[in-house]
Amino acid sequence: MEQQRDYLETLAAFKTPEDGGHSVVLLQPFDDLEKFKEFDENIKEVKDQLLSEFRSIGGGNITVATRRLLTYIMTDNVAQHYSWLGNNGKQMFCNLNL
């Protein structure tokens, strides 16, 4: 747990794109469900930075933006375990801290 806190503090110290720096909250999409859940549980420390990172992804409309964001944060290996409301035995995406 202490190692996670240190990692999140290091990430929080990086400049956001608005500050003229770059965000490194997500280096690549999550491919492991447990690692994704752990990240989501501890996201509070870097949430503003992550939102700035999301804003930089953009998209021409809500559908394109949503697809870009989802592929940015998780692979199909993780996404297959979620639906918005948790239908068909899946976990609820709407309850995530993201």
From TrEMBL:
Top-level taxon of the source organism: Eukaryota
Protein name (Swiss-Prot/TrEMBL): DUF4806 domain-containing protein
Annotated organism of origin: Amblyomma americanum
